[in-house]
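Module 6 notes. Inverse folding takes a fixed backbone as the condition and produces residue identities as the prediction. Think of it as a translation problem where the source language is geometry and the target language is the twenty amino acids. Below is one complete input and output pair. Work through it position by position during the lab.
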């Protein structure tokens, strides 16, 4: 009874296959095909998985946290809210030892949105005009379904399945303990503040092995190879001091945003997202406007890779915290805008998820496998 409905400007053929893996998860594979003679622009995709069990309002449902700031939401089935959705999974507790589960193992092209509606798992996706050329087929995101007596076992198996699906084998064997400038100073710190805390942390917590220089060290957000002019010796002197204390120096960058006062925006506005009328999209903050890197433009990846190369090779940082990755997605960008209704990237044929993946691959390659990449 699983249905797949695609809204597009031309017909799109769909096929589905349900198989059971060694981990016990049923894998729902969906293929979208353009068998016509003209290109197709996909507007939306809706997958409906009906439940054989009848839900009652007293049963509980959990929606998995999708990103930083969106924790797991748990409530009774009859208490659906505006926030009752997840881009990861939905799980229903039928009885104390009976759980139904639906989740996604990938975000490669689309961002699946899981909801519980009309006694079914409903998975909705904004197609964003994704183009299918004549004769082209693409796979929808890998969906898994399961029933279990234990929600812990479900989530453990789910995590392992995500790792396997995305080729994640062994994480870097390292354990960091330490301190970050943001924890006390926010973005307002001096080099002397850092040096004093290096000294203190070695006395208070001698096993500490990380000092993370967080937001605020750069001249303007987006100019991530140029430190503030009021840091004597620049960011390299700070990294050298951390190394001399026997700890790892870490540095913060925003991989998806910059300020309009930054040199990179002034010199290369084409590296940032625009609307359908050609205007740069921005969030208007208290004293500065924030713009958003467009990784569908090849110059954006080259620029970010060069910033990382400078921080790694010239400044001495082997640890990178890349923050606010969620601002690569259209839904998060448009939340904070009042006048922009649509986004038109440099390459409008790809989705926001594809743009994010282009950026993350460029960042991961620039950081290198020998160094540490913390993504938030």
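Target side of the pair, the amino acids:
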């Amino acid at each position: 009874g699983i249905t797949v409905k695609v809204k597009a400007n031309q017909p799109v053929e769909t096929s589905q296959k349900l198989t059971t893996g060694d981990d016990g998860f049923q894998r729902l594979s969906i293929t979208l095909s353009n068998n016509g003679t003209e290109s197709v622009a996909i507007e939306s995709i809706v997958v409906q998985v009906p439940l054989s069990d009848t839900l009652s309002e007293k049963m509980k449902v959990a929606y998995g946290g999708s990103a930083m700031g969106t924790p797991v939401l748990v409530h009774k089935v009859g208490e659906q809210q505006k926030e009752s959705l997840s881009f990861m999974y939905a799980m229903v507790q039928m009885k104390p030892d009976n759980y139904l589960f639906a989740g996604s193992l990938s975000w490669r092209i689309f961002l699946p949105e899981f909801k519980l509606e009309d006694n079914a798992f409903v998975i909705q996706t904004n197609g964003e005009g994704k183009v299918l050329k004549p004769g082209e087929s693409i796979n929808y995101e890998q969906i898994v379904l399961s029933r279990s007596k234990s929600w812990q076992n479900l989530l453990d198996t789910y995590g392992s399945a995500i790792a396997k699906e995305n080729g994640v084998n062994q994480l870097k064997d390292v354990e960091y303990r330490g301190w970050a400038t943001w924890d006390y100073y926010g973005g307002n710190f001096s080099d002397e503040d850092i040096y004093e805390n290096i000294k203190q942390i070695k006395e208070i917590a001698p096993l500490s092995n990380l000092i993370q220089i967080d937001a605020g060290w750069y001249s303007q957000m987006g100019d991530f190879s140029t430190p503030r002019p009021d840091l004597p010796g620049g960011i390299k002197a700070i990294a050298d001091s951390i190394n001399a204390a026997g700890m790892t120096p870490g540095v913060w960058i925003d991989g998806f945003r910059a300020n309009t006062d930054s040199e990179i925006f002034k010199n290369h506005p084409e590296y940032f997202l625009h609307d359908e009328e050609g205007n740069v999209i921005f969030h208007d903050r208290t004293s500065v406007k924030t713009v958003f890197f467009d990784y569908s433009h090849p110059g954006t990846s080259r620029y970010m890779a060069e910033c990382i190369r400078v921080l790694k090779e010239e400044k001495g940082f082997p640890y990178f915290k890349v923050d606010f990755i969620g601002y690569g997605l259209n839904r998060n960008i448009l939340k904070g805008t009042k006048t922009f209704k649509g986004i038109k990237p440099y390459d409008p044929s790809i989705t926001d998820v594809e743009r994010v993946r282009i950026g993350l691959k460029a960042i991961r390659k620039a950081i290198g496998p020998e160094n540490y990449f913390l993504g938030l």
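Reference fact for the lab report: The mean pLDDT is 94.
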